[in-house]
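All the exercises in this workshop are built on plain-text protein records. Instead of coordinates, the fold is spelled out as a row of discrete tokens. Once this layout is familiar, the rest of the handout is easier to follow. The record below serves as our worked example for the rest of this section.
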Amino acid sequence: MRIGEAAAAAGTTPRALRLYEARGLLRPPPRTSSGQREYGSAEVARVRVIRNLLALGLTLEDIRRRAHRLDLLVQDQPSSSCGSRPGEFSDVVADRLATLDAEIARLTHLRQGLAAAAGSPQCRPGSQTPSSSVLAPELEG
């Protein structure tokens, strides 16, 4: 099938297929005599697995680090979105979880600081525009 048909079958776009190919997640497919890409059901299944992993929060780089193992997940796809081989991606998942935890901590700290600043008398409704010292004390010289 041509790129548009393969993309539709996998629930994505032709542009995404070209991106996955460029990033090494999808092997370059054979081409017709006119140079058009020809995809089979195996490539469509692989793209579905890639999309499932992206939906779980992994990045293209995370998946690229284990691209050589994607076929194992393709074989297991009907059983779950991560396959029945959780160890195949465990280090990538652990890294992604650590990154997400760090980002959550950073955003929580940022939120607490903003909430504290918004709760100060200078930030209440009817007061003058908040000074930079209330919203960003680290900016003071």
Observations:
- Residues 1-84 form a domain with the Multidrug-efflux Transporter Regulator; Chain: A; Domain 2 fold (CATH 1.10.1660.10).
- Helices lie at 3-10, 14-22, 41-55, 60-64, 70-76, 90-118, 132-135.
